[in-house]
Write a structure and sequence with these properties.
This protein is of the alpha+beta class and 262 residues long. It has 5 helices and 10 strands; from the N terminus they run ααββββββββαββαα. Helix content is 23%, strand content 26%.
Length: 262
């Protein structure tokens, strides 16, 4: 791609975005302290007063992202996850649990290789509206080929963040799915939707497979598979737990953390 033409096209779009836009305000209200009915389940969070324990320990403080364990896509095409544990990172060939919820954040840095932890220039929690109220669809950094002019990649980095509840924990594990595997996850969730199956009513297994980019670089692709279906009682409990848990999570506080370079 002609870099001169690319810069000219992006410059024009950026100027269009300079028009003021209304700020988007996120309001999070505290969930009422009501225990969920206990059910017979192998998931710790669904069999006791986990929500009350979480609220009591937080002391009305927001549940920010830095309190969660996060699993990212491994580098170099590795097909092994690194999962944080009490004794350090543990190798895992697969991740299994209930996807309580997910977000689709995106972020833009004005340097090609930002240092890990560097805040982005622009970010969005839903890939639709930026943090300053502008439409992502109209942004030049959302165009294919805007990253460097030599590939079809976008300058604004997309991902999917899964809240994966595992049997032995009441706090979900965060799984960051890269843009290369985003279509796979959306197709998986759509297949569940086609049968009126909520994603939180099944147990999902996540694995990795090695792939190679057009530039010859190895990377990992995510695979998603339903391994079992929850009982009606468990499904109802998982839905209620997920909804109340996400109310505890302070979305406004999470936005900056979601978009840090990694």
């Amino acid at each position: 791609m002609d870099n001169t033409k690319l810069k000219g096209r992006m410059s024009g779009k950026v100027q269009e975005l300079q028009q003021p836009a209304g700020n988007q305000t996120i309001t999070v209200t505290s969930a009422p302290e009501t225990s969920l009915a206990q059910v017979d389940s192998t998931y710790l969070a669904l069999t006791n007063n986990a929500l009350d324990i979480i609220r009591a320990n937080l002391k009305s403080q927001p549940l920010t992202l830095d309190l969660f364990d996060i699993v990212k896509s491994p580098s170099g095409g590795s097909t092994v996850f690194e999962v944080p544990g009490l004794a350090g990172n543990e190798a895992a060939m697969e991740l299994t649990g209930i996807v309580l919820d997910y977000t689709t954040p995106r972020a833009y840095w004005d340097t090609p290789d930002p240092v890990e932890g560097t805040p982005p220039v622009c970010m969005s929690q839903n890939s639709i509206i930026s943090h300053d109220g502008k439409a992502c669809a109209h942004c030049p950094y959302n165009d294919f080929g805007s990253k460097d002019g030599d590939s079809n990649a976008k300058a604004c980095k997309e991902s999917v963040l899964l809240f994966l509840l595992r049997p032995n924990s009441i706090i979900p594990l965060l799984v960051r799915v890269p843009v290369t595997s985003k279509p796979r996850f959306l197709k998986y969730s759509t297949r569940l939707l086609s049968t009126l199956t909520p994603i939180s009513s099944v147990v999902t297994k996540i694995t990795l497979e090695k792939a190679t980019s057009k530039q010859g670089k190895p990377y990992a692709l995510f695979n998603f598979q339903t391994v079992s279906t929850l009982s009606p009682e468990e499904a109802a409990q998982a839905k209620a737990f997920g909804q109340q848990f996400m109310e505890i999570v302070n979305a406004a506080q999470m936005v900056p953390e979601l978009a840090q370079a990694s």
